[in-house]
Each structure stands twice: as structure tokens, then as C-alpha cells.
Amino acid sequence: MVAELSSQFKPIHAAPVAQITTSSAGSQMKDSRLMSDSSSNFEDAFDQLGLSLEEVEAFQLANRAKKVANSEVCACGHAMNKHTKYESGHWDCHTAKMWCPCQEPIPILVADDTKYFMTKTHGYGARHALATGLLRCRQKGVKTRMIVEPRCFKCDRQTDTLFPAAINRENRLVDVPADRNGIFCIECIYAFQGIQVESP
Ligand SMILES: [Zn+2]
Ligand SMILES: [Zn+2]
Ligand SMILES: [Zn+2]
Q: What is this structure's pTM?
């Protein structure tokens, strides 16, 4: 029901509310409203204020969507809302204490509080900012949830053992914050390191 209302946002409903301030038209409007409600003794405060149900619901929905966006965390291990795109077309991701060259922000999970995602990447897996950020959340009792399928970003294989990693422009795995970040299977981690794994 709520979703339905969002798609049919009608600013027209706002007009009568705004007009109440003008003397004659306003009082007329109010009277007719009271008349229509006279059948019942109880009048809801929502109607008494002349609020538009559609308008308030649309605002509530938009505000909720904003909160969801603000709770998203990028594959680089930092909150999506800490990413900035510059006129040059380049991105970065920063807080007062942290800077990261993330060029491809990808929302990967949501957290009840993203403020613990501001650690630095020192390698892949346990040493990546996504892993240390998630650890901090667990230590602080902050809930987190994946919003992407548990698949390797490179080979698309579905596995429950995925390693967050930073990849540089030369497509190599690095031990510092880098342009690209993702979650990868161990075979692809080896491939990024230039290690050939012989298949049995
Ligand atoms: Zn980042
Ligand atoms: Zn990022
Ligand atoms: Zn893979």
C-alpha cells in the first residue's frame, strides 16, 4: 500500500493546505471539511490539521529510502555516503581520518551504523578495510547484512568463502588502499597475485 502511494505522488493535495492562510477561502475550506465529518463525533488530529495523507506518506517514504542509502557500505570497506565524485571524473572516499582512492563504489552490505567502517586496507581478507570494519561492528553489536549475492566478483562463482581485496589499475592485488575493491574466491585472489594454480 505504501509503495503504491509513492508512485502516485500528488502535489495537488498540498494546495488546499497552503491556501488556508488566506482569509475567506481558507475558512470556507475548513467549514466544508467539518461538515463532511459531522457524522462522527471523533475527529482525528491528522484531519484537524488539514494535513495531506499522500504528502506526509511520500515524505516518510523518501526519508526512509535516504536512511537505507546512508546505511550502505562499499566494497572498499567504507560508507557509500563518504564517496565523492569530482569534476575530473575521479572518485575518492574519505572521512576526517581516512582517505581511500576507491574509483568504483559498489554497495555491498548495509549496517545499522556505518561509522565503524573507516579502517584502512593493509592487504586482502583479514587485512582489508571491509573485514576490519565488519569486526568493529561485531565488537560493538552493530547489525550488518549483505545486499549482494555471495559470488566472486571476478569469476562469478558462488561460494561461502570470499575474500575482500584491493586491486590496482594493473589488475594486481595490493596491500594498500586501491582503485578497485571486491570480494573474490581464493583462485581469483591467486590470479590477481600472478600465481598459477594447477587444476587437478
Ligand atoms: Zn573507501
Ligand atoms: Zn568505495
Ligand atoms: Zn573467482
A: 0.69
